[in-house]
Specification:
By secondary structure, the chain is an alpha+beta fold. It contains nine helices and eight strands.
Length: about 270
Amino acid sequence: MPADAPLPYSHPQDQPHRGGGGPRSVERALELLDLVADAGRAVGAKALARSLGCSLSTVYHLAGPLLARGHLVRTAEGYAPGPRVPALHRAHLRHHGLGAPTGELLGRLRRATGAEAYHTAYRDGLITVVDTTAPVTDTAHPFTPGPEARAHATAHGKALLAALPRARRRRYLAEHGMARFTERTITGAERFEAEMAAVRGQGYAVSVGEADLAYTCLAVAVPDRGDGIVHALSVSLPTADFARRQGAVRAALARAVPDFPALPES
C-alpha cells in the first residue's frame, strides 16, 4: 500500500468510537495513532487526512504532540509507531502482573501446537487480545492485539464470557451486540447461553469458522488469579486442519494453563 493510499479502519467494528467521553482533539489524535499502528507500513499525512476526514494542517497539529512524546516517528515514507509504544505495552503487562513469562508461555504453546497462540482478558466490560505469537505485520491474521469486537464469535471470547456471572455476560452482549460474521456465527441469546453451558461443562471453548470461515480457534479460561480480570489462552488454526489437530491442541492448552503466571506478591 502506498504511503498516501486511503486507510480502511482495520478493527472489526470498522469505525472509531464517537462517544462524548473527552475532547474531540484527543479522540482524533488517538484515531490517528490507531491508523498508523494498524497500517502495514509508514503512513503519509495525505492518507491520514483522507481517512480522518480532516485537513493536512489538522494532521500535523494532531501528530505534533505524538511525535514529541515518542508515540510516533516521522520517516521518509510517512508516520510510523514510535519508541514509546512498546514501552506502553510493557507497562500494561507489568501492571497486570504479566510480561516475559506470559510471552514465553505463548511461545511454548505455539511450538507445541504449530499454530498461533493468544492471551486474552476480560476487564471492566471489555475483552481485549493482550498478546499473540502472530507477527504484527501479518495483517491478514484474524486476531491482533487490541479490543476484541467479535468476542461472541471467537473461542477466547466464549471462554471469557462463560466464566462471568450470567448477568454480567448478558450486559456485555447487550452493550456489544452479537453481529453475524459468517453463517456459523451464533447470534441468538438462548443458543449462546446453551453454548456457555457447554463450554463450562467441557472446560474449553471452540469456534469453528464463526468469526472467519478460514479459521477455527480453541480456548481455555485461566483459573481466577484474584486480580479482578478473567484471562484466557487460545490457539487458532486453519479450519481445514481442525478435525485432524483438535485433540493435540486441546491437550497443549490444558498443559499450558497451570504455567500461566501467578500474581506477583506485593
